[in-house]
Amino acid sequence: MTGITALDELLRSMQPELLNGEMVFCTVAGQMADYVGLEPVAMIREREGLTLLVSKAQAEQQGWPVESCFRQISLSVHSSLEAVGLTAAVASCLAQRGISANIIAAYYHDHIFVPAHQAGQALAALQALSSER
């Protein structure tokens, strides 16, 4: 199944959905295999170490420091990984409102992690962006 590449269609069809629960980004030592059992939302290897995106509850259970909490907004539209401009449009929309956007593109959908205390604002902004199209 091929994802959508046309920016206007992506924005019009994105249907942002705010998921339940708070998420945190943690940096940990070791290998990816050491943490697969936690079923992190994302794992990214960087030169400085391994970053995991896990629930706040999981991080606290592991005794990892929690610096900032985020909520996940998933865009329901099946965006192509080759689409141009979706990430920029979403980030710009949120930046205009002073909301940081940590965006992860997966095969089918894009996922935006916003500060937990601004999640409602972020969702409303993305819904407005979509309805403007």
Automatic annotation (TrEMBL):
Q: Which domain of life is it from?
A: Bacteria
Please report the name of this protein according to its UniProt entry: ACT domain-containing protein
The record, for InterPro entries, names:
ACT-like_dom_sf, DUF2241
Pfam families hit by this protein? ACT_3
Instruction: Fetch the Gene3D superfamilies from UniProt.
Output: VC0802-like
Domain DUF2241 per the UniProt entry, residue ranges: 2-71
Query: Which lineage do the record's taxonomy fields give for this organism?
Result: Bacteria, Pseudomonadati, Pseudomonadota, Gammaproteobacteria, Vibrionales
